[in-house]
Specification:
Layout (H helix, E strand, L loop, with lengths): L12 E6 L11 H11 L3 E4 L1 H7 L5 H11 L2 E6 L18 H11 L4 E6 L5 H10 L8 E5 L3 H14 L11 E2 L13 H17 L1 H8 L6 E2 L4 H20 L3 H18 L2 H17 L5 H14 L7 H14 L3 H14 L5 H14 L4 H19 L3 H14 L3 H18 L2 H18 L1
Parallel strand pairs: 1-2, 1-3, 3-4, 4-5
Antiparallel strand pairs: 6-7
């Protein structure tokens, strides 16, 4: 079709209707049928499992859905309060509920996804899904919130027309190169990306100053046309860049990189890395003091906790949850999470030990002496000997010393921590140590 022609002059396009079939649970959702009939009255060809899918014989349901999405032109997805039913692993290589599995199939086939949330009362799991996927870096087409079910019919019609109108911002948004540079006019090949990641990790092993200089050469290019291999390599590089930027306290840039990394893992069907990265994103959101960290965490861990092949991520889940709880002052629950993380880890890092100790001191005052031994004797000793997690460990050492009015020790930990963070360029931890220093100075008055 010539680019100058609008959709109205083109052939009828197939629209796959994706949503929970029951809303609320146990009740058929009438809006699905209403949307089907509305689209059927327009120059569109709607596809819904209850109608077209039931006509197919000799194939399992998941295969029917996969083939229908591969053959359609666009997927229209909508939710209200619930995610829908969990898909058993034997039916899909992707660990999803039915509807977000359909979204993943659409993006793997480079199909546009028009996503809608109806009302303002999503369940906890749907809230987590929405907090993650309501982002144009992950789903580049339409993501809308609607007040009423009745609004869905007209919004879908308008958005579908826009998708094939060349003058619309919805026309072919799979490629956005606004962030491209002369060095990177487009995403390079997988081998180049792998070498760049090696360069970034080597620089990070020295300090974050050097790592940020490497990360600064990596633009955030959105291109769904990339091969799965390139998507995986670019996603890994973006994830590492996001980690660097988060520790440099460049939170907006870090979050943008993490979102784009999740998109590429999503489109490549790399579920292990996808949920690991979603977990990482929730951690960075917490570092940036964004409340939605808890919801992204809930969505990512829903899969991790239910799938045996993701159990290697369990310690990170408990650690991440502990951080979120500590941010909100829920120390008893945070300590319980850190206790689980510690039991599941083969190696006790200074990071884990110091976090476990400070949560113990806050949650269990009767175990303060034990917390002191773990943090001051064990964690600090390992951190200094191995030159690992030293700034982070010194932060908690200073705070624990201040809590016990051990001012000279606290001052020494603060000074050493500031020096270490400046050396490494860790501005995130440095800000926490500066906050402890401010408390120290105010307590002198």
């Amino acid at each position: 079709m010539p680019r100058s022609l609008s959709f109205k002059q083109s052939a009828t396009r197939t629209v796959f209707i994706s949503s929970p079939s029951h809303e609320p649970r146990g009740s058929r959702w009438p809006i699905r049928q209403q949307l089907y009939e509305r689209l059927d009255s327009l120059p569109y060809k709607p596809w819904m499992y209850e109608i077209e899918g039931k006509r197919v014989t000799g194939k399992p349901p998941h295969r029917i859905v996969q083939e229908a999405i591969a053959a359609c032109d666009v997927v229209v997805c909508f939710f209200k309060e619930r995610m829908g039913n969990w898909m058993q692993n034997e039916f899909t290589s992707g660990p999803f509920h039915g509807t977000d599995h359909e979204i993943s199939l659409a993006r793997q086939n480079n199909k546009p996804v028009l996503l809608y949330r109806i009302g303002d009362s999503p369940g906890p799991l749907l809230r987590g899904f929405w907090e993650l996927f309501e982002n144009s870096r992950i789903l580049p087409h339409v993501v809308r919130r609607l007040s009423r079910e009745e609004d869905l019919l007209e919004s879908v019609r308008q958005d579908l027309d826009e998708c094939w109108e060349p003058s619309s911002y919805l026309f072919r948004p799979e490629l956005r190169t606004d962030a491209a540079t002369e060095l990177w006019p487009h995403v390079p090949d997988a081998l180049t990306l792998e070498r760049m990641r090696e360069s970034l990790l080597t620089a990070r092993s020295h300090n974050l100053h050097s790592a940020e200089r490497v990360a600064a050469t990596v633009p955030l290019i959105e291109d769904s046309r990339l091969s799965p291999n390139v998507k995986n390599q670019y996603a890994a590089l973006l994830a590492d860049c996001g980690s660097v930027w988060a520790n440099r306290a460049c939170y907006d840039l870090a979050i943008a990189a993490e979102n784009l990394s999740i998109r590429y893992y999503f489109e490549a069907g790399n579920w292990r890395s996808l949920f690991s990265q979603a977990l990482s994103l929730s951690g960075i959101l917490n570092m940036a003091s964004q409340a939605r960290a808890q919801f992204v965490y809930r969505y990512s861990t829903r899969t991790i906790f239910h799938m045996p092949e993701f159990r290697h991520l369990m310690p990170a889940c408990h650690d991440n949850k502990a951080s979120i709880l500590m941010t909100s002052g829920q120390w008893t629950a945070a300590h319980a999470q850190m206790a689980q993380a510690r039991r599941q880890l083969n190696e006790q890092s200074p990071y884990t030990l110091s976090k476990y100790a400070i949560s113990m001191a806050a949650a269990k005052p009767d175990k303060l002496n034990e917390a002191n031994d773990i943090l001051f004797e064990e964690a600090l000793s390992i951190a200094r000997t191995r030159n690992r997690d030293l700034g982070y460990t010194l932060k908690w050492a200073a705070i624990l010393a201040l809590q016990q009015n051990e001012r000279s020790s606290a001052r020494a930990f603060i000074d050493e921590g500031v020096k270490e963070c400046l050396r490494l360029g860790n501005w995130h931890t440095l800000a926490d140590i500066r906050a402890a220093e401010s408390y120290y100075q105010m307590s002198e008055v």
